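Exercise 7b. Backbone tokens:
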């Protein structure tokens, strides 16, 4: 993917053949070690004893607090996102903005955000505050993101080295 440094935010785009889906997590952990003032939300799958996905947690990057955003229903199927818990993650993003941290990472620009809901207002507020932001998304979400963001920002391949290079460029 090409970079076109036009704003201080970037879409970290993955597809079904993305090799390292932990690249964003690794990048954030490395930034914490380097004492970057970083905050935001990551997501992680929860697996059952058979290795099947049994739910999804949002993780507050600054505190490592886990928020259960989806869990199995009584019939064994995984329910959709718990929008009340997802809404609670909004306060995490607002706190990052209020504290003017160095970098915000948000996983991910999902279906709710694509429809103008979820964390979209917080994402746009972070951009308006000019706090550097990396937001992950699927390849299929990229056109909606580019329309929402006015085609500004960078598009990064979902690789730790791409995130590191972008961050280095942002810092000047």
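Sequence design result:
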């Amino acid at each position: 993917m090409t970079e076109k440094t036009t704003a201080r935010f970037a879409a970290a785009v993955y597809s079904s053949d993305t090799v390292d889906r932990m690249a964003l997590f690794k990048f954030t952990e490395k930034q914490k070690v380097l004492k970057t003032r970083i905050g935001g939300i990551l997501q992680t799958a929860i697996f059952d004893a058979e290795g099947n996905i049994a739910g999804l947690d949002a993780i507050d990057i600054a505190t490592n607090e886990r928020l259960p955003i989806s869990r199995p229903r009584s019939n064994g199927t995984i329910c959709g996102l718990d929008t009340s818990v997802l809404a609670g993650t909004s306060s995490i993003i607002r706190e990052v903005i209020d504290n003017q941290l160095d970098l915000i990472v948000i996983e991910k620009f999902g279906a709710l955000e694509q429809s103008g809901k979820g964390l979209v207002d917080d994402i746009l507020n972070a951009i308006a505050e000019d706090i550097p932001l990396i937001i992950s998304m699927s390849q299929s979400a990229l056109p909606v993101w580019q329309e929402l963001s006015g085609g500004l920002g960078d598009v990064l391949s979902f690789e730790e080295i791409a995130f590191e290079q972008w961050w280095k460029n942002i810092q000047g």
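Instructor comment: The beta strands are 9-14, 38-47, 53-60, 66-70, 103-107, 133-138, 154-157. The longest strand covers residues 38-47.
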